[in-house]
Amino acid sequence: MGSAGEDRIPPGPVIFACAPHANQFVDPIVVQSKAGREVSYLIAAASLRRPFIGRVARTLNAIGVERPQDISTAGVGSFVCKGVKVTGEGTNFLKQVRPGDTLSIVSKNGAKFSGNVKSVQSNTSIELKKDITNEEGVSIELFEA
User: Fold this and answer.
1) For labelling, which of 26, 65, 116, 127 has a CA lying 20 to 30 Å from the CA of 17?
2) Distance between CA atoms of 68 and 79, rounded to whole angstroms?
């Protein structure tokens, strides 16, 4: 007995998109059992480095993909963001940040924000590609944990 919609899968190479969600480890098993062909999976490279999950994923020919959140590092110091200008105190932006990086930050009240870095002027000065403001359009003071 086939699966619903199985007749709509074309012959030859196909990309099945199974968006990541709570069943991320069950989805590959279901897809593999119903695909009727060899299947390779994308998996977070961090998961490949886990002993059991990595062994199972490699057995299934999984392909590791580095995610930004898995290779991010915490910065030092604190900073204030006003418009596109980020001014730090005790920061080391020249070593820790490059143009194109995403600066992920948490406000003092716990709200999360992120912005793409346009340029790094010094150890205490960054310019973002666009303004990071709260819903009211007011610049907010930010810090890194």
Assistant:
1) 116
2) 22
CA distance 62 to 55: 10
Which tokens sit at 109? 């009240």
Task: For each of the domains in the chain, give its residue range(s) and CATH number, in order of start.
Answer: 6-68 (no CATH), 73-143 (2.40.10)
pLDDT, tens digit (0-9, with 9 covering 90-100), for 52-85 = 989 988 888 888 998 877 777 778 888 888 888 9
Tens of pLDDT, residue by residue over 16-47, are 777 666 666 777 777 778 777 778 888 889 98
Q: Largest Cα–Cα distance of the chain, in whole Å? A: 65
Backbone angles phi, psi at 28, to 5 degrees: -60, -35
